[in-house]
Design goal:
homodimer; alpha+beta; 3-stranded antiparallel beta sheet; 3 strands; about 55% helix; DNA-binding
DNA sequence: CATTATATATCGGCTTTCGATATATGTCAA
DNA sequence: TTGACATATATCGAAAGCCGATATATAATG
């Protein structure tokens, strides 16, 4: 990870929900999608993602199903109605949070 | 705390450094300053702040001195040269991080 | 045939933060 | 004046979030 990992804290679930709000994806694909979309800033670790996905299924934010592709079984995940609600809440929280940071830093970020 | 505390993760030290880059302050004052500047979004807890301040002094980011005001002894903190360097780094990381979040979320934040 | 990429998984440990609790003084109203 | 609240600092244990290490298995590449 290029930047301090601790800054990522709390936003991983939001990012996963966002990726899955576009289309169903499997774990490994999410890791790559996040790296690409963030332009190599985020490098979500497998050790973080897989337990998180299980947890999110348990909470009813995601559903999962297996699909065989080229001899390998992939586990696809899709976002639920509840997951979409949580995503909207987390995006709102992110706006509040980053807005407050900007105010404390004095509004001189983004150059 | 109005928003999910975990979103704050990792940025507390940066915010403390920022407050002290303006002027020397004592702990209780920082808690209030952060609440005011963030417009009630951040509510830094004493149980978070005081151990963090001790740690930052130990790392050479801050210096501290006592001052008696109205019969009460306050512990003031000031930022060091090293602390200023760390602040600059953390601000840069924050720009990278929040920029990446915006890219993943699709640029539709801040409305 | 060996190495690398793909793909998922678990476990222990670290870091960050907070709730609870403790202590002590100043201020203000009943 | 006395009880409550604000000011001010401090520590401890617990919880949450994330990651490194590790394991397993198959496909592709050289």
């Amino acid at each position: 990870m290029a930047i301090d990992r601790s800054l990522i804290s709390g936003s991983t679930m939001m990012l996963v929900l966002k990726l899955l709000s576009e289309k169903d994806r499997y774990g490994y694909e999410m890791i790559e999608a996040l790296r690409e979309k963030s332009e190599n800033v985020f490098e979500l670790k497998a050790g973080t993602l897989y337990p998180l996905l299980h947890d999110m299924v348990g909470k009813g934010y995601l559903t999962s199903y297996e699909q065989e592709v080229a001899g390998k079984v992939r586990k696809y995940y899709g976002i639920t109605k509840t997951g979409k609600k949580i995503l909207a809440e987390k995006e709102k929280e992110w706006r509040e949070y980053s807005g407050a940071i900007v105010r404390v830093l004095g509004g001189m970020i983004y150059e």
